[in-house]
Design goal:
This protein has helices at 88-104, 112-127, 134-148, 190-201, 212-230, and strands at 5-17, 21-28, 32-38, 57-64, 70-79, 166-170, 175-178, 186-187. It is an alpha+beta fold. It is 33% helix and 24% strand.
Length: 241
């Protein structure tokens, strides 16, 4: 019998299963995304209580099962991120952050920096609803692209290497493009360009502010990068319009 797996984890998703169980999608620092079943978790006197809900940061003991799912045998709360549930905006932002992690990092490959980023992002949302703004969500996604190794080229034209007149963005090319290479790109305003550069370098709590137009362009750049280079379509942050 294999030794139990002891790990921190953040609950990305919690699904009702059978009469009393829960299926959990977890993200861990050393084992990437993990699936687990918590047997009897929905019973009134379950030892797990309510701690297996999304966004909880837990210390878990998992045992390897017969299939692809681990079995949860112990769960202690490290942070409930309770403030996330106080506002519709923070609840939605947390769900989209977990969804982005789930889509971009769906394997068991270790990415401890992604785990730390998600834990930090949830803690920020729990502490202050202002972090539910689109700017913070986009900065979070940009940092996820960096961790995935597909961050867009921002310092020079992704097609020819020119460092001036960077006026467009091409997801297919992998970043900003100059005026001579913009035929297949969309227009990227200077403000949107500065947002991408500054958001990548700033801590998540210090995500720069920008106009709605600039943020929409930045979201398009991030979305096209994920789609072209990770074959992942991220859920929109800013809606239609």
């Amino acid at each position: 019998m294999s030794a139990p797996l002891r790990t921190e984890a953040i609950v990305l998703r919690s699904i009702r299963y059978g009469e009393a169980d829960r299926i959990l999608h977890l993200y861990t620092p050393r084992h990437g995304r993990v699936g687990a079943i918590a047997k009897g978790a929905r019973r009134t006197r379950s030892r797990f209580g309510a701690r297996l809900e999304p966004f909880f940061h837990l210390s878990l003991v998992l045992h390897e099962g017969r299939g692809d799912l681990f079995t949860v045998t112990s769960a202690d709360t490290l942070s409930a991120h309770g403030g996330v549930r106080d506002h519709a905006a923070t609840l939605d932002a947390a769900a989209r952050a977990c969804d982005a992690v789930s889509r971009l990092f769906e394997t068991g490959d270790p990415h401890p920096e992604v785990f730390r980023l998600l834990a930090n992002g949830l803690a920020l949302l729990a502490s202050d609803a202002c972090h539910a703004q689109a700017a913070t969500g986009l900065a979070f996604r940009l940092k996820l692209l960096l961790a995935a190794g597909i961050v867009p080229q921002l310092t020079a034209c992704a097609s020819c290497g020119a460092t001036e007149h960077l006026v467009g963005f091409s997801g297919a090319a992998g970043g900003v493009v100059c005026s001579g290479c913009e035929a297949t790109a969309f227009r990227l305003d200077e403000e949107a360009y500065r947002f991408l550069v500054d958001a990548l370098g700033a801590p998540l709590a210090g995500a720069p502010q920008a106009s709605e137009r600039a943020l929409r362009q930045a979201e398009r750049a991030i979305g096209e990068t994920a789609e072209h280079h990770a074959h992942v379509r991220l859920r929109p942050l800013m809606g239609v319009g």
